[in-house]
């Protein structure tokens, strides 16, 4: 009967409602071509290649050319992610973009990316959670897909950190770099267990009492200037190790999974010593931890999607593997995400 649902046999078992989850469908990245080495920085700062490598693991970073903005890098990363997913921009329902170095105070950097991709539909907005930005953006996008508000989303982390660094401050100038990473998330239906592909859970935290230990000392509502990054490095380090360990435990426990179930740690890339400490905490050998900090330095919201892109491209990431992502940054904000590829 056209237009009328047939009556269900009262004796038949109720159909199990499929659960929607968000699956990684494509990865992309963009790095400015200009490489700046530690020795380049030591030419103008009281620092050395040896000090930077020993304390941070950083050897070089990419710096965007004048005039290249966060949306330029983001659009390049998004195009790569769309190509990897085999999708046209028109298939995308929205853009969730994390950045601390927006093109302008408003509109959101995400709308510039939307226009650069030639998209004429969907929504676009920014998320501000500094170095935890990608985890926050992923969490928001995942929730929208689970709620049925979108079927395909671009999630992007993009930064031109070089624009907010005080190039005379050796305590911060040596630590950061520019870049963008992007993923395509698509809705998929399944039973909802941890063996199926998709984001299993995300875990977000913030504690604004600690904003002073890592912040930018300007903004439209205070100084009227852009400002520069200021950091109490030792304090940030102390919080990073304890808070990341706790949020990793939280993510595994929420899914009834153990450390031994994790195939890859894809951490925020701030400092090799923090990354190594987290790898040891999870009991993963170094070859199961994706590291880009040596070549990219800290690209804030871009670091995790850039690391995902690199490990996907070189074939390290494979379908069915369990990936643990974690990050901490200004706010303080911190978080973790677990995903089955
Ligand atoms: N080159 C040479 N010396 C430097 C330096 C540099 N680039 N930066 C700082 N120093 C000096 C300091 O001035 C200090 O000198 P002093 O003892 O004469 O005062 C000395 O090195 C030690 O400084 P400290 O900050 O205690 O060093 P550290 O071992 O803690 O290493 C960081 C500094 C920044 C590398 C480290 O604290 C760190 O990585 N913290 C976390 C930062 C982070 O992850 N931020 C981003 C989070 S998203």
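-> sequence recovered:
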């Amino acid at each position: 009967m056209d237009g009328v649902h047939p009556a269900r046999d009262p004796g038949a078992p109720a159909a199990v409602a499929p659960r929607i989850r968000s699956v990684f469908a494509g990865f992309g990245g963009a790095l400015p071509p200009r490489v700046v080495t530690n020795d380049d920085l030591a030419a103008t700062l009281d620092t050395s290649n040896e000090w930077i490598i020993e304390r941070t693991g950083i050897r070089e970073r990419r710096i965007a050319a004048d005039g290249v903005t966060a949306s330029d890098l983001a659009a390049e990363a998004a195009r790569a992610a769309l190509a990897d997913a085999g999708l046209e921009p028109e298939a995308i329902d929205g853009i969730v973009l994390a950045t601390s170095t927006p093109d302008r105070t408003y509109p959101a950097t995400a709308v510039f990316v939307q226009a650069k991709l030639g998209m004429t539909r969907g929504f676009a907005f920014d998320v501000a959670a500094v170095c935890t930005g990608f985890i926050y953006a992923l969490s928001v996008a995942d929730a929208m897909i689970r709620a049925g508000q979108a079927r395909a989303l671009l999630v992007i982390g993009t930064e031109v950190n070089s624009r907010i660094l005080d190039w005379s401050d050796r305590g911060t100038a040596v630590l950061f770099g520019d870049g963008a990473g992007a993923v395509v998330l698509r809705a998929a239906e399944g039973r909802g267990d941890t063996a199926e592909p998709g984001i299993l859970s995300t875990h977000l935290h913030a504690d604004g009492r600690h904003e002073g230990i890592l912040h930018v000392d300007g903004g439209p509502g205070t100084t009227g200037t852009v400002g520069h990054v200021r950091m109490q490095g030792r304090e940030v380090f102390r919080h990073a190790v304890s808070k990341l360990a706790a949020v990793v435990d939280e993510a595994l426990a929420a899914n009834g999974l153990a450390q031994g179930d994790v195939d890859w740690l894809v951490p925020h890339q701030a400092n090799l010593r923090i990354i190594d400490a987290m790898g040891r905490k999870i009991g993963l050998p170094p070859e199961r931890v994706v590291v880009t900090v040596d070549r990219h330095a800290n690209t804030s919201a871009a670091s995790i999607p850039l690391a995902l892109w690199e490990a996907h491209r070189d074939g390290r990431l494979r379908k069915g593997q369990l990936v643990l992502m974690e990050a901490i940054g200004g706010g303080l904000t911190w978080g973790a995400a677990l995903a089955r590829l």
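The pocket of coenzyme A is lined by residues 47, 51-52, 55-56, 131, 170-171, 174, 214, 231, 233-234, 236-237, 240, 270-271, 298, 328-329 (CB under 6 Å).
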